[in-house]
Amino acid sequence: MVHTPHGSFDTPAFMPVGTKASVKGLLPELVKRTGSQIILGNTYHLMLRPGSDVVAHFGGLHRFMRWDGPILTDSGGYQVFSMSDINRITDDGVVFKSIIDGSTVDLTPERSMQVQNELGADIIMAFDDCPPSAAGEDAGGAHAARLDLAMERTIRWLQRCAASHARPGEQALFGIVQGGTDLDRRRRSVEQVCGIDLPGYAIGGVAVGEGTEEIRRIVEHTAPLLPAERPRYLMGVGYEWDIIMAVRAGVDMFDCVLPTRNGRNANAFTRRGPVRLRNAVHARDKSLIEAGCDCPACGAGFSRGYLRHLFLAEEMLGPILVSLHNIAHFQRLMADARQAVVDDDWARLTADWPVLGGADVAVADDA
Amino acid sequence: MVHTPHGSFDTPAFMPVGTKASVKGLLPELVKRTGSQIILGNTYHLMLRPGSDVVAHFGGLHRFMRWDGPILTDSGGYQVFSMSDINRITDDGVVFKSIIDGSTVDLTPERSMQVQNELGADIIMAFDDCPPSAAGEDAGGAHAARLDLAMERTIRWLQRCAASHARPGEQALFGIVQGGTDLDRRRRSVEQVCGIDLPGYAIGGVAVGEGTEEIRRIVEHTAPLLPAERPRYLMGVGYEWDIIMAVRAGVDMFDCVLPTRNGRNANAFTRRGPVRLRNAVHARDKSLIEAGCDCPACGAGFSRGYLRHLFLAEEMLGPILVSLHNIAHFQRLMADARQAVVDDDWARLTADWPVLGGADVAVADDA
Fold it and tell me: A-chain residues within 8 Å CB-CB of B321?
């Protein structure tokens, strides 16, 4: 369990993503009813709109979006590097064009800290240099040089983040380990990042295109190198089998857009694998997404046939209901994983969750 | 109070519109929390998708959409005449092109009854001939002849509806008075329609483009002609001042898309008039949509500034929250109107609801 100024959360924890100060389509009271105890907000989006000064004016992100539990914000770095038209990267930071209005925006370690201090999340993330992963990574050369530079910068930027963090008593700053798919780089990154005393550490740069086996290789190597007495957070992962693999490797915290993004696309998660609710086979299907599920969708008795209708009719309620179900699915997985840790009984977890067989066996039961 | 197989509702009653088996974006439990006791579904949309046979397969509209309170469905006529590419109108019925797939669809009084019997609403509406209102209506001639034909057809079609209605013990069939803006035609239509013994009667063809004074003239003339011991339903009306005028003229039931449609467009209703939440003036506005409001949006403390952010960021939660507030606004107006009926104190209602001064005084407090 992790304690924050806005309450505690059980670990391993799954954080639904509330990118723009809203878990898409979901009232906070409904997010809570999925079993979620902590949510994530995106610094990149919030600094551009409405602006962290505006959020601060409202008393911070918790009060602004009416979520009174713990919140984590990322640093903005990942989105800058993955979404933006970048003008310049220097040792100082990144200059990019806003996706909102095309204006030029500077993001430096100090600025990321200032923005996150204003947003006021309970856990904030270090601003790091995250170069795009490249197929040619193993080929060495220019890309290897870029990765080495990123590692050096990341540690210098982390020092600047720690130095400029204005609210260390209220907001826990986590460092981020990078290093791509190279295990030696990962080890060196752990040594550097964990050399700075911080309340938690994250594994970044995973699930940016690699398959399940590659994710496993990185996580099973890296997670055990992190200090066990601090929360360990695997950023942006992932499918059920990835999460449980990581829990067994020692990871405490997860976030992923899968439950909400797939929910908006009519793809529901179940213990037996995904269900595509747009499929014609569901037109007269009276069954719930998942029998026995107590989420706000299944608990109220919404059938697969009704949900299919909502998606075909382009009714907002479809994305809402399946997002709720999907988040509840991941929260139930985490609850069972916590029990598996207590009991040290992973066979039972796998028996209860056939989907954990992995991508190969996770075929839709309506395929 | 009106009693139905799915419970009772207080009158005067306001019905939120759930066109396609969903009040847009709102879980039924949240609709209920706005104070709504009965909702409306649209036969036209539901017969085209998913089809009334599909809804019947799921046990009817209540079970399909998980709303266990009373439901009213319209006949499909209004949408056929206002939305469709009509191929042919005959004494038998209407042939039109589906907006879903362009296929040819027949809608007759018998077919409308069959569809509504399958949907299974507690109150169903007669299928009538509703020609478009015309600016040249007063000019007589061709349009007058069309209106007379519509009146004759409407009564013949009503007889066919009553004769073919298969579930009169479970579903109350309401007749619809037409007649446009001509008071004599309205009187004759009342005589014809109310000549058929039905559990309720509606005033149709109002609020299809006329102003408040014209609506008042029609309703204050027509409503008192309807039998007082049966529910009287004014279809598709309207703004707060229109509704209260009609309540005082004896109307018991209302439906309107205004709270949900305006809610989706960031226009909030308040006792003092509309508030446009996209306005820049709300960027740092910490106030609720309406102080003292206990709707799921205001009750949870969402500020105007946060709502503005949601709309600018195109987050679904904006339309959801403002729709909830707006429906609650109309339900509170109805609750106060019921009290005004009991107390026979309309001055107090007007004092409590400055917006009732009418369209002229209902300026946004943020204009």
Answer: 27
Specify whether the CB–CB gap between B232 and B206 falls below 8 A. Answer: no
Contact in structure between A220 and A192 (CB atoms under 8 Å)? no
- Measured CA to CA in angstroms, residue A318 lies from A95, A305, B17 at distances of 39, 11, 17
- Of all residues in chain A, the one with the smallest CA distance to B324 is A27
Q: What is the pLDDT of residues A58-115, one digit of tens each?
A: 999 999 999 999 999 999 988 888 877 888 899 999 999 998 999 999 999 999 999 9
- A86 CB near a chain B CB, below 8 Å? no
How would you list the strands of the sheet with B104-107, edge to edge? B85-89, B94-97, B104-107
B108 Cβ partners below 8 Å, 6+ apart? B92, B93, B94, B127, B160
Identify the H or E element spanning B124. Answer: strand B123-125
Taking alpha carbons only, the member of A312, A244, A254, A253 closest to residue A278 is: A312
Measured between alpha carbons, how far is A276 from A322 in angstroms, rounded to an integer?
11
Highest mean pLDDT: which of A84-98, B18-32, B196-210? Answer: B18-32
What does the pLDDT read at residue B133?
67
Rounded to an integer, what distance in angstroms lies between the CA atom of residue B15 and that of residue B40?
Answer: 6
User: Contacts of residue A28 in chain B, CB cutoff 8 Å?
Assistant: 300
- Distance in angstroms (rounded) separating the CA atoms of residues A141 and A15: 37
Catalytic residue among B74, B122, B242, B252: B74
Residues of A in contact with B284 (CB under 8 A): 54, 57-58
Question: Are the C-beta atoms of residues A219 and A249 closer than 8 Å to each other?
Answer: yes
Q: What does the DSSP assignment read for A130-172?
A: -PPP-GGGGG-THHHHHHHHHHHHHHHHHHHHHHH-S-TTTSE
Which residue is closest to B61 within chain A, CA to CA?
A306
Could you tell me the pTM of the whole model?
0.96
- What pLDDT sits at residue A150? 87
User: What separation in angstroms does the CA of B346 have from each of B258, B351, B356?
Assistant: 24, 9, 11
Residue B163's Cβ-count burial label (10 Å; 0-12, 13-18, 19+) is: exposed
Nearest chain B residue to A316 by CA distance is: B25
Q: Taking a contact as any Cβ pair under 8 Å apart, which residues of chain A between 270 and 289 contact chain B?
A: 283-284, 286
Output the DSSP codes for A259-295: HHHHHHTTEE--TT--EETTSGGGTT--S-SSTT--S
Q: Which residues pair with A255 in a beta bridge?
A: A15
Q: Is B17 on the interface with A (CB under 8 A)?
A: no
> Which of B19, B22, B314 should be substituted to probe chain A, the one whose Cβ sees the most A Cβ atoms within 10 Å?
B22
DSSP code at position A299? T
**Is the domain covering A2-256 a CATH 3.20.20.105 domain?**
yes
User: Closest Cα of chain A to B282: distance in Å?
Assistant: 11
Q: Say if A49 is an interface residue toward chain B (CB within 8 Å).
A: yes
- Positive or negative, the CA dihedral A174, A178, A184, A189 is negative
Asked if A255 is an active-site residue, the reply is: yes
Q: What pLDDT is stored for residue A223 in this prediction? A: 98
- Which residue out of B122, B242, B252, B255 is catalytically annotated? B255
The active-site residue, picked from A122, A252, A255, A285, is A255
- In a 3-state reduction of DSSP, which class is residue A93? coil
Residues of chain B with CATH 3.20.20.105: 2-256
| Residues forming a β-bridge with B39 | B71
pLDDT greater than 70 at residue B362: no
